[in-house]
Amino acid sequence: xxxxxxxxxxxxxxxxxxxxxxxxxxxxxxxxxxxxxxxxxxxxxxxxxxxxxxxxxxxxxxxxxxxxxxxxxxxxxxxxxxxxxxxxxxxxxxxxxxxxxxxxxxxxxxxxxxxxxxxxxxxxxxxxxxxxxxxxxxxxxxxxxxxxxxxxxxxxxxxxxxxxxxxxxxxxxxxxxxxxxxxxxxxxxxxxxxxxxxxxxxxxxxxxxxxxxxxxxxxxxxxxxxxxxxxxxxxxxxxxxxxxxx
Length: 246
Ligand code: FPP
Fold this sequence. Notes:
Elements: H1 3-12, E1 18-22, H2 26-32, H3 37-58, E2 62-69, H4 77-101, E3 103-108, H5 116-128, E4 135-143, H6 145-161, H7 172-177, E5 189-192, E6 211-214, H8 224-235
Parallel strand pairs: 1-2, 1-5, 2-4, 3-4, 5-6
The protein binds farnesyl diphosphate.
């Protein structure tokens, strides 16, 4: 499925090495079908599997998914526990296949807030996939960008107080090194589903020069075809990073 688009991607030039996605619209997808919201999230979990496979096929190296924000802790407890259960289920079901596919999973965010079962699952998937080299899959869970930047500032301040870093050495690279995303380059492409035109506290530092693509498709309907179309759209763009064309 999508082989025609994959062939076009191969001819289209550079593939975005790092793709980030705000997976939005699970609730509306369920509402449209008169289903409870957790069933929308369950359908969203299947879309995650589809997009991971599509990313590997297209040659994407890093896929960063916004699965649960710090703000999402304010949702009704039943929805939070359904999402935590889904996370555990996703990991239990997918961990072997992820490892076989060469996917390395990292979970970014404040994991101290996760229930013990979800936290253990997160540690398990990170451990069991640690040798993967084909795709880095970053799941942002209990993640917010402002909290991440504040944490980086705190870590740098601690280093200065301990005498390990000099004040004058704190520059952009030093801040970048303290972010959860330090091991990876910034996203080349950000996709947001369900048509909402905002960043919702996601990767605010890292998205400085990222190409944005907003699609009306609701997350559970997002398939590898949509991913391939987004990559083709990216390949038609000219990235200047604030400079003029050579
Ligand atoms: C936004 O839709 C989506 C979420 C808050 C959760 C995303 C979770 C998944 C895709 C499934 C689980 C993922 C993994 C990795 C196991 P929304 O509920 O805000 O939708 P709405 O705006 O239509 O209400």
